[in-house]
Amino acid sequence: MRLFGWETTFGYGSSGSGPESLEPEGGADANMELTPERKEAISQFRERVAPLLPPDQRHDHALLQWLIARSFNVDKAEQMLKKSLEWRRELGVDTVLEWEAPEVLTKYYPVGMAGHDKTGCPVWVIPYGGCDMRGLLSSVKKADYIRYTIRVLEASRRDMQQQTQQLGWPVNQQCCIFDLDNFSLKHVTWKPAMDVILELVQLYEANYPEFLKCAYVINAPKVFTLAYALIKPFLHEVTLKKIKIFGQSGWKEVLRQDIEPGQLPQHWGGSRTDPDGNPKCPSQICLGGEVPKKYYLSLSKSNLSKLTENENLSSITLSKGGKKRLKYEVKKPGSHLRWEFRTEDFDIGFGVSRKLKKGEEEVLVPLQRVNSQLVTEEGYLVCTEPGTYVVTFDNEFSYMRSKKVLYSVSVVKPDNLTEE
Predict the structure, then answer these.
(1) Gene Ontology terms, cellular component aspect (predicted)?
(2) First-last CA distance in the chain
(3) Fewer CB in 10 Å around end: N or C, the chain?
(4) For the chain, what is the radius of gyration of the CA atoms?
(5) 200 pairs with which residues across the strands?
(6) pTM of the model
(7) Distance between CA atoms of 358 and 127, rounded to whole angstroms?
């Protein structure tokens, strides 16, 4: 079989090899030959990591995804894979499809799998122009939003496995159609939204290498260039070459070259409609839309603009130009330092460091201003070394206002992590 421009054999049953057009069009490695040196790299990489992987992830194509992401540097590819496997363990990614997501995400997170392209890869439609990021991030914790995105990726991975078995050749990539109709400055000027987007981009690049076959960005307005300029530095050069950007026209013809009409809703250049004739097929594709305020955490749980005391959260008030440093002792490597906080009316600076000898400190989470008055900020840090960890709330940039913070910070030992 010829895949990514390489001759290789996979052994996925007796149904024969896949079509010659499996290589991603325009990919940086589409015409790269599998040289003796690269064959040796695959062999070395397999020998090192095979014990860590399930059988269906030990074939050439699955291993190549990690090697491509690290330019065939076996040491770096091994390090990347091991970090990703640890990430999957820590976040419980292997069971994320069993997670019962918050209702607001299932109703207003714009995404849906339309069908498959001509080579069997799943095709996802993301009507991002209809996404109310402010509403979603005001209604769920950031961790839940990210977890839901991971669930979509894992649903795609499961579909690939099913396609692999049905078609008899490896399906390891997905196609995405990002529809930016109604995209406006509101999508790029709210910092919490962009922070989450950038975090997801980095998560995708670190844990789903060569997962993307092609991304079609359609109906892109001029203001999209502002958002794209922020995102591009975080994308691998191989990924960038797989992104095709269109304005209001020209994209339907390109989609039809790669995807049969019967695999797409009529609205996106295909022939399918819902039983009621809706050309967008909302029964398959969640279209997003404005999130009703009844879902907002600030209304359903507590009013973020006027904080109320909470038995699970401690309270501090930082004076004008003040700072508060909280110290936590970590005794076992691999423990998690976890935090959750929100502020009243205004943002606050936040950072984490670890004390070293002679009064020095190692910065682990750089001090930065956080819009925790809008969305509850939460996160965690894996403490690879024992010692004293310092959580800092900083109001030194504000000489006019004191700040009230409700927070919870805890150290979770490694033994307790497996129980969650």
Answers:
(1) cytoplasm
(2) 44
(3) C
(4) 24
(5) none
(6) 0.74
(7) 54
172-197 exposure pattern, b = at least 16 Cβ within 10 A, e = fewer: bbbbbbbbbeebeeebbebebbbbbb
Q: What is the mean pLDDT of each run of 10 residues along the chain (420 residues)?
A: 35 33 36 79 94 87 92 96 94 95 97 97 97 91 95 97 93 96 80 87 95 97 88 92 96 96 97 97 96 78 49 87 95 92 90 91 90 82 92 92 93 74
Domain parsing of the chain, residue ranges: 2-91, 94-295, 302-417
Q: What's the rounded Cα separation, in Å, for the pair 252 and 144?
A: 34
Give the closest residue to 365 by CA, choosing from 398, 403, 338, 332.
338
Cβ neighbours of residue 364 under 8 Å, at least 6 residues apart?
Answer: 352, 353, 354, 381, 389
Residue 149 to residue 93: CA distance in whole angstroms: 11
Chain centroid to CA 192: how far?
Answer: 15
What's the CATH number of domain 302-417, 2.130.10.120, 3.40.50.150, 2.60.120.680, 3.40.50.1000? 2.60.120.680
